[in-house]
């Protein structure tokens, strides 16, 4: 574990202790990750009379959805499905067959939030024995694609989709394809000692009520898992840095890119009180609350787990742990290194470009990507671009997220301009030699009268 300054470690412990005390929670465990490695972990309160450490299991609820999404994107990357495919193409016979795989991942399919019947989190999954039991007769509350609407049944369908394509249980696929490669050997659908018990705390008295730990049955892929702070720290490291054994880097970035203001693909967009935009997921089941979140700009991630139904502000604590480290021990950047090899044609594109009169710079980065940055304020068209197998480039952020870069040339092969989503970038402001939409006044630039 990388050393932190003693005063930073004390500040982290103080925040965790204040959260456990004010949240009236039997126990809390937390961890902080920087650049893929665990740098701090601690616990407060007790589990079975002992202060818990990062190896004690807690139920993580909907953080399970992030792991389910990783499995779906693996299927997509293998060419076994497409995110625009209707569910019926791979899992026929459900009441939501017209919903696309991508919409289910992003919670934009318009499906109901919860399955029919009694509160599913506190009742046995055996009450909903068939996949059809997780959806009512009328499963849609909004037209598909209209808006974000969180849906637990939607992720139950994705779990069944994974099972149908792979031919084995969701838990088996998860173990082999994600948990084992990432070293998350204390994560699984059933608790393994040491683990916390779930509790409800009376709102007006310091007394406890045990919560039932139900098997979720068909909703396993939406929230079944138990895990530890140490294992979720590995998940945080994966969200920060990726792991090609599990998912290609571009797909991890795709997961974490916002599809709506609230969600990406199996990943929530979390807005911290200090204005930071974090990515990760919250989780809750009766007796447990949890959050894993990362700040890619700082290379930081944090995990908080507690065994209480309500009252513990895990999201706020998680964001505060990230803030404490970021402010007290700012990230030290990696040493600058030159490109290992130089593509002369790519190098010829480097340098200033202009969208109208607005100056930008295009820079080949050492990691093989391109960066289009504004040279002064108001650069709303800045983006990062990934190389595509066909030799092209696709935007990964900002306004041009998902848009293709076209490098336009004249008859002699010389580059005339760049086109990204119809936005023309030229070597000179409003270059008359380039096809500027609307044309350029033939008199050119002039002074005032």
From TrEMBL:
<protein>
    <submittedName>
        <fullName>CubicO group peptidase (Beta-lactamase class C family)</fullName>
    </submittedName>
</protein>
<dbReference type="Pfam" id="PF00144">
    <property type="entry name" value="Beta-lactamase"/>
</dbReference>
<feature type="domain" description="DUF7586">
    <location>
        <begin position="342"/>
        <end position="427"/>
    </location>
</feature>
<feature type="domain" description="Beta-lactamase-related">
    <location>
        <begin position="14"/>
        <end position="326"/>
    </location>
</feature>
<dbReference type="InterPro" id="IPR056008">
    <property type="entry name" value="DUF7586"/>
</dbReference>
<dbReference type="InterPro" id="IPR001466">
    <property type="entry name" value="Beta-lactam-related"/>
</dbReference>
<dbReference type="Pfam" id="PF24491">
    <property type="entry name" value="DUF7586"/>
</dbReference>
<dbReference type="InterPro" id="IPR012338">
    <property type="entry name" value="Beta-lactam/transpept-like"/>
</dbReference>
<dbReference type="InterPro" id="IPR050491">
    <property type="entry name" value="AmpC-like"/>
</dbReference>
């Amino acid at each position: 574990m990388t050393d932190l300054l003693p005063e930073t470690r004390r500040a982290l412990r103080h925040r965790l202790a204040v959260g456990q005390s004010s949240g009236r929670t039997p126990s809390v465990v937390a961890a902080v990750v920087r650049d893929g490695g665990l740098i701090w972990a601690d616990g407060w309160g007790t589990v079975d009379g002992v202060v818990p450490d990062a190896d004690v299991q807690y139920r993580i609820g909907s953080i399970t959805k992030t792991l389910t999404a990783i499995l779906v994107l693996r299927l997509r990357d293998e060419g076994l499905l497409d995110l625009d495919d209707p569910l019926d193409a791979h899992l026929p016979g459900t009441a939501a067959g017209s919903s696309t795989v991508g919409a289910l991942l992003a919670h934009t399919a318009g499906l109901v939030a919860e399955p029919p019947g009694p509160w599913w989190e506190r009742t046995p999954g055996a009450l909903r024995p068939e996949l059809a039991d997780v959806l009512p007769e009328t499963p849609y509350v909004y037209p598909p694609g209209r808006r974000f609407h969180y849906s637990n049944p939607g992720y139950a369908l994705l779990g069944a989709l994974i099972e149908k394509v792979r031919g084995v249980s969701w838990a088996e696929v998860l173990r082999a394809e994600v948990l084992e490669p990432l070293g998350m050997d204390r994560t699984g659908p059933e608790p393994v000692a040491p683990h916390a018990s779930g509790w409800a705390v009376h709102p007006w008295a310091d007394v406890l009520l045990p919560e039932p730990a139900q098997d979720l049955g068909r909703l396993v892929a939406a929230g079944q898992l138990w895990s530890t702070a140490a294992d979720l720290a590995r998940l945080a490291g994966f969200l920060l840095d990726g792991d090609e054994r599990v998912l290609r880097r571009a797909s991890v970035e795709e997961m974490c890119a916002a599809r709506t203001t609230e969600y990406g693909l199996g990943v929530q967009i979390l807005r911290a009180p200090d204005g930071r935009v974090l990515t990760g997921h919250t989780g809750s089941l009766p007796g447990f609350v949890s959050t894993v979140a990362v700040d890619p700009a700082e290379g930081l991630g944090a995990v908080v787990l507690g065994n209480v139904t309500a009252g513990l502000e895990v999201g706020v604590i998680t964001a505060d742990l990230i803030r404490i480290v970021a402010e007290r021990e700012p990230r030290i950047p990696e040493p600058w290194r030159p490109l290992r090899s130089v593509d002369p044609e790519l190098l010829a594109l480097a340098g200033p470009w202009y969208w109208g009169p607005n100056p930008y710079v295009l820079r080949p980065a050492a990691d093989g990507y391109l960066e289009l940055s504004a040279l002064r304020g108001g650069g709303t068209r800045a983006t990062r671009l990934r190389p595509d197998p066909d030799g092209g480039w696709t935007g990964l952020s900002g306004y041009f997220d998902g848009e293709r870069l076209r490098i336009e040339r004249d008859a002699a092969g010389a580059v005339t301009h760049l086109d990204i989503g119809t936005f023309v970038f030229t070597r000179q402001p409003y270059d008359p030699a380039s096809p500027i939409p609307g044309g350029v006044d033939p008199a050119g630039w002039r002074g005032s009268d």
